[in-house]
């Protein structure tokens, strides 16, 4: 299963925009750690990847979306309001990642200004993770040679 932002966004945006009191996002942060611990203890492998782009690259991508009518759907004027609070968001991301990166559910911070490099890093992380799982097909209790499929 892949989640894009998911419950982490419920901490970052709420914290930076002061949508709810601090106790709310701090409680959510604690719940995330507890939830991920429970999942990991029950056998779920958790891979958390933060795709980090620089402020300069974000500007370039926003301008590209603004200049190309086919990309207008990808931009929201509120993005510029949030961009003005770049350092607040970065502080919140650093804090949430440091408090929610655990041995059972670590964060991987991937430089993402160059998509080819981002893709290479994510692929390597996923490949390494899957290889560590040492998965095998489940054994069967029947002989495939004895099965005939009629027309």
What's the SSE blueprint?
Layout: H1 6-16, H2 22-41, E1 48-52, H3 55-67, H4 77-83, H5 86-100, E2 107-111, H6 115-133
Parallel strand pairs: 1-2
Helix pairs in contact: 1-2, 1-5
Tell me what you see in this structure.
The protein has 151 residues and is mainly alpha-helical. It has a single domain (6-133), classed as Rossmann fold. 56% of the residues lie in helices and 7% in strands. The chain has helices spanning 6-16, 22-41, 55-67, 77-83, 86-100, 115-133, and strands at 48-52, 107-111. The protein is extended and about 70 Å long. The protein starts with 5 loop residues before the first helix and ends in an 18-residue tail after the last helix.
How is this structure best summarized?
The chain has helices spanning 6-16, 22-41, 55-67, 77-83, 86-100, 115-133; strands at 48-52, 107-111. It is mainly alpha-helical and 151 residues long. The mean pLDDT is 94.
- The assigned CATH architecture is 3-Layer(aba) Sandwich
- The strand count comes to 2
Instruction: State the end-to-end CA separation.
Output: 37 Å
Q: What proportion strand?
A: 5-15%
Spell out the helices and strands N to C.
HHEHHHEH
């Amino acid at each position: 299963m892949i989640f894009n932002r998911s419950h982490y966004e419920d901490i970052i945006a709420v914290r930076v925009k002061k949508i709810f009191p601090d106790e709310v996002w701090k409680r959510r942060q604690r719940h995330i750690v507890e939830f991920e611990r429970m999942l990991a203890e029950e056998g779920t492998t958790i891979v958390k990847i933060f795709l980090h782009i620089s402020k300069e690259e974000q500007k370039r991508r926003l301008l590209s979306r603004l200049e190309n009518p086919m990309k207008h759907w990808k931009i929201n004027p509120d993005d510029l309001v949030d961009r003005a609070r770049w350092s607040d968001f970065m502080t919140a991301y650093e804090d949430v990642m440091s408090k929610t990166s655990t041995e059972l559910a670590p964060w991987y911070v991937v430089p993402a200004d160059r998509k080819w490099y981002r893709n290479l890093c994510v692929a390597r992380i996923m490949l390494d993770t899957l290889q560590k799982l040492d998965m095998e097909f489940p054994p069967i209790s029947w002989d495939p040679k004895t099965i005939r499929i009629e027309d």
